[in-house]
Design goal:
Order of helices and strands: HEEEHEHHEHEHHEHEH
Strand content: 15-25%
Largest sheet: 8 strands, mixed
Low-confidence stretches: 1-17
Shape: globular
Mean pLDDT: 93
Strand order of the largest sheet: 1-2-4-3-5-6-7-8
Length: 287
Amino acid sequence: MKKIMFYLGVIAAISNMAAQTYPPVDYPEGYQAEIDVIYSEVDGWEGRMDIYYPKHTEKAVPLVVNIHGGGWNHGVKESQRGYGSFFKNGYAVANVEYRLVDVATAPGAVEDVRCALVYLFTHAEALNIDTDKIVLMGGSAGGHLALMAGLLGNDKKFDTHCPFDGSLEVAAIIDKYGVTDLTPLSEWKSARNWLGDGFRDNEFVKSVSPLYYVDTNSPPVFIVHGDADPIVPYEQSVILHRKLQEKGVKTSFLTIEGGQHGKFNSDEKKKVSKAMWDFLHSVISME
């Protein structure tokens, strides 16, 4: 146990050093920031998130929950900073960290994002959040986790650390070139490492693959993916979009022609932003 605690301490120290290399998020006047809010504790690991929300509004506001990428093996929440358009549109923002593979293999990261969601639903009144207008967003591994947390809906198989009697249905998911089906990718190093001993168990692999949770009650999903992505195959988004359409789920799929793994140029980023906001405005009312 002492060795485990030592390694967790080292990991936490490294994470803190990495976090210090990023400037703080700029948020507008009238917003309040709560940094490093602990949403979950598991075996000595503390799950933290940063929350930005309007201090004085007459009604509850929509919320976007952002999940960083990094192949489930690296990345920190502090690297995520581009929330200006959400603030301008009156959204609160929650920026979430989760256990990386050196702390927990699958389904640890899924459990963590679900716990973060439970925390936000539980504290919605204090944070002035409209629980009918929660959006999950992520890129790459973060896209996978956003899809998992949102498509699970009220299936609480991964909620053992954070039991919650209420509904955990979200209003929409923003998936940026995320993994949707791990079954053909289980030999991919990052995926295999995250799957741990479960990589040989096809049913387990399916259980942490968003594609297999799509049904007629799934929330609307916006997808963006470059068709020249060298890391997450473009086909991963194609099959998700197809299944969403088959089930009658509202969805929008933006292909960036020649686009790499999220390394879009300024014009492509503007195109992504416009398409995403057109989608969000169509599914979430600000009334």
